[in-house]
Amino acid sequence: MAEVLAVLWEAGEPMTAQQVNAALDKGLARTTMATILARLYEKGTLRRVPAVRGFAYEPVEDAAGLVAGRMHRELASEPHRDLVLKRFVSSLSEDDEETLRRLLLDAEEESG
Question: SS3 of 50, please?
Answer without folding.
Answer: strand
